[in-house]
């Protein structure tokens, strides 16, 4: 009986050892990161940075527990343990119509244990590196790529070898400044495990603002911005009318990579306006239309 108890205790300690804690920042009108990969047993912690928000499950795997928690200055953290594999989707109840939604993709850790995934940017092309505890019964590795960190597509399959260390060089021809990678390990039974999502920064000149929507804008004006950030900081957005008169401004938290922000313009008379966006030493001017 004692041996059984000790064996159970050791199994439990091993499970705890391999469980990770994944932090998601709740800031302005975005969850950062918007999409994360995790394993059964991992813990998600949403951490308040600014604003008044919630994290609320909208679609989760069968047998998983729903959640609805405020993330505010008074209640800055919410913790959730992932106990069931599958895709979890959630939102901020106050701002989901502004795109404040998130996804957690949860797989079961396989015995081969895909780990230590990284992307080396020291050479001409992105070099992906990963390790496994074993290469036994692995069918293949699916190398996947994304321009936004949310939607991935397979670019290659790597076959298992005698070594438990793997490399893949992406002969990248993408024009985006930030590229996201993940590796999916698939065993011979069809089970799979996802790596973390890693970002690669290309050495190219890119625009600060990548998209504005909607444009034209209806009243009351809500403008969504997608923007690049080479480092953490603050994006200042100023609104001017066509004659150059300053109207209002807002600030948005910026984290390295691709960001999403929201500018509440209020009620504006129809016409042409422009915004001036500044992040660090970079400033861009964009025209918007209010109809």
SSE topology:
Layout: H1 2-18, E1 21-27, E2 30-32, E3 35-39, E4 43-48, E5 53-59, E6 68-71, E7 77-81, E8 86-91, E9 101-107, E10 114-120, E11 127-132, E12 138-146, E13 153-158, E14 165-169, E15 178-187, E16 192-194, E17 198-201, E18 209-213, E19 221-229, E20 233-241, E21 246-254, E22 257-266, E23 271-279, E24 282-290
Parallel strand pairs: 1-4, 3-9
Antiparallel strand pairs: 1-2, 4-7, 5-6, 5-8, 8-9, 10-11, 11-14, 12-13, 12-15, 15-16, 15-17, 18-19, 19-22, 20-21, 20-23, 23-24
What would your notes on this structure say?
This protein is mainly beta and 291 residues long. The protein has 3 domains: 19-108, Immunoglobulin-like (Sandwich), CATH 2.60.40.420; 110-204, Immunoglobulins (Immunoglobulin-like, Sandwich); 209-290, Immunoglobulin-like (Sandwich). The chain is 6% helix and 55% strand. The chain has 1 helix and 24 strands. It has one helix at residues 2-18; strands at 21-27, 30-32, 35-39, 43-48, 53-59, 68-71, 77-81, 86-91, 101-107, 114-120, 127-132, 138-146, 153-158, 165-169, 178-187, 192-194, 198-201, 209-213, 221-229, 233-241, 246-254, 257-266, 271-279, 282-290. Strands 3-9-8-5-6 form a 5-stranded mixed β-sheet, with no helix packed on it. Strands 12, 13, 15, 16 and 17 form a 5-stranded antiparallel β-sheet that branches. Strand 23 and strand 24 form a beta hairpin. The longest helix has 17 residues, at 2-18. It starts with a helix and ends with a strand. Mean pLDDT is 91; it is low at 1-17.
